[in-house]
Q: What sequence folds into this?
C-alpha cells in the first residue's frame, strides 16, 4: 500500500486524478477500522491531513462553509449557534477521541445510513462542494446519498467544503441507541424550523437504505402551521397535528431488521422522536425564537 501525502489541495486533486482508486484518509476513524479488519486493502491511501483549508470554517451571511476535515469537537465548541442541529449530532458521535479526529467530510465519504451528521445536514439544508482537476460542483444534500454507503462522488473527486444554512430557528437532533455513548444509532432524527421561509425540514437516519427527509411529513406540517396561523400566533401545536406529523415521519422510514433493532421498532422510534422534537423546537420558537409582532 502506497501512502500519498499531498501538501496542498491542488496536489491532492492531482493525486486523485492520477490514482482514482486511492482512498482519501482524513481522521481515519472509518478508514483505519476497515483496513485493520482487512475489509479494504487499497493500493493507495491519500492522506489529507496536511491540507489546512480542509480544517477551516467560515461563517457567512447565510451559510457556514465547513471544511471537510473540521473535527466534530470544533463544531460543538465553535458553531453551536450557527449550526445547533449539527452540534447536537456531533455530541452524540462516539467518544471525545473519535470526535477530535472524525468530521463531516468523512461521515459523507462513508455515507453510512447511520452516520450522525446526515439527519442534521438534511434538516438544516446543505450542499456538498466537491472538486477535481476538472472543476468543482455543488451537490444538494438530498442528492448526495445514492445507496447504502454510496454517494454521488466521482472517482477523481474530493469533498472540499460543506455549505450549511445558518440556523434561522430552533433545531433538534436525537438518536436511539443501546447506551448513551459510543453507540451507532439504531435510528436517528433531526428537525429544523425555518421561520424565515415558514418551513420545517427533517432528516431520518438509520431507518432507510440512505439518510432521507420525511417530505410528506414536512409538507403536512408546513400546511398545518400556515393554515392555523401558527408562525404568527405562536399557539401550541395541537396534539392531533403533532401525531399526524409523527405518523407521516414513521411512514417515510423504510427500515430493515438487523442486529441493532427491528424495522418495526425503528419505524415506531423515529415517530416518537419526531413528535418530541416538534414539541421542543416549537416551545423554543414560541419563547425566545419568535420575534414577529404580536407574539404571545
Ligand atoms: C469507535 C468508533 C465509534 C464511532 N461512532 C460513530 C457515531 O457514533 N456516529 C457516527 O456517525 N460515526 C461514528 N463512527 C464513524 C466515524 O467516526 C465517522 O463516520 C467520522 O465522521 C469519519 O470521519 P473521518 O474524518 O475519521 O473519516 P475517514 O475515516 O478519514 O474517512 C471516511 C470515508 O470518507 C472518505 N473521505 C474522507 N475525507 C474525504 C474527502 N475530503 N473527500 C472525499 N472522501 C473523503 C474516506 O476515503 C473514507 O471513505 C465511529 C467510529 C469509531 C471507530
A:
Amino acid at each position: 500500500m502506497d501512502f500519498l501525502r499531498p501538501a496542498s489541495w491542488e496536489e491532492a486533486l492531482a493525486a486523485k486524478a492520477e490514482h482514482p482508486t486511492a482512498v482519501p484518509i482524513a481522521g481515519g476513524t472509518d478508514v483505519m477500522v476497515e483496513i485493520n479488519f482487512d475489509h479494504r486493502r487499497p493500493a493507495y491511501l491519500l492522506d489529507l491531513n496536511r491540507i489546512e483549508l480542509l480544517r477551516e470554517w467560515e461563517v457567512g451571511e447565510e451559510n457556514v462553509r465547513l471544511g471537510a476535515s473540521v473535527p466534530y469537537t470544533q463544531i460543538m465548541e465553535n458553531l453551536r449557534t450557527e449550526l445547533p442541529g449539527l452540534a447536537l449530532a456531533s455530541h452524540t458521535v462516539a467518544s471525545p477521541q473519535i470526535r477530535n479526529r472524525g468530521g463531516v467530510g468523512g461521515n459523507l465519504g462513508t455515507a453510512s445510513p447511520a452516520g450522525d451528521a446526515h439527519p442534521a445536514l438534511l434538516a438544516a439544508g446543505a450542499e456538498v462542494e466537491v472538486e477535481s482537476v476538472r472543476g468543482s460542483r455543488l451537490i444538494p444534500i438530498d442528492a448526495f446519498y445514492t445507496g447504502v454507503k454510496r454517494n454521488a462522488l466521482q472517482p477523481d473527486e474530493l469533498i472540499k467544503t460543506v455549505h450549511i444554512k445558518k440556523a434561522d430557528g430552533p433545531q433538534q437532533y436525537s438518536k436511539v441507541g443501546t447506551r448513551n455513548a459510543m453507540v451507532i444509532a439504531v435510528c436517528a432524527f433531526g428537525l429544523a424550523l425555518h421561520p424565515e421561509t415558514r418551513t420545517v425540514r427533517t432528516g431520518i437516519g438509520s431507518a432507510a437504505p440512505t439518510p432521507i427527509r420525511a417530505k410528506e411529513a414536512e409538507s403536512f406540517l408546513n400546511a398545518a402551521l400556515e393554515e392555523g396561523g401558527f408562525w404568527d400566533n405562536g399557539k401550541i401545536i395541537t396534539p392531533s397535528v403533532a401525531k399526524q406529523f409523527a405518523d407521516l415521519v414513521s411512514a417515510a422510514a423504510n427500515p430493515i431488521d438487523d442486529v441493532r433493532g427491528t424495522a418495526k421498532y425503528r419505524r415506531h422510534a423515529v415517530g416518537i422522536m419526531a413528535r418530541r422534537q416538534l414539541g421542543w423546537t416549537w416551545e423554543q420558537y414560541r419563547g425566545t425564537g419568535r420575534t414577529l409582532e404580536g407574539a404571545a
Summary: The CA atoms of residues 214 and 249 lie 5 Å apart. The chain has a mean pLDDT of 95. The longest helix spans residues 263-289. DSSP finds twelve helices and 13 strands in the chain.
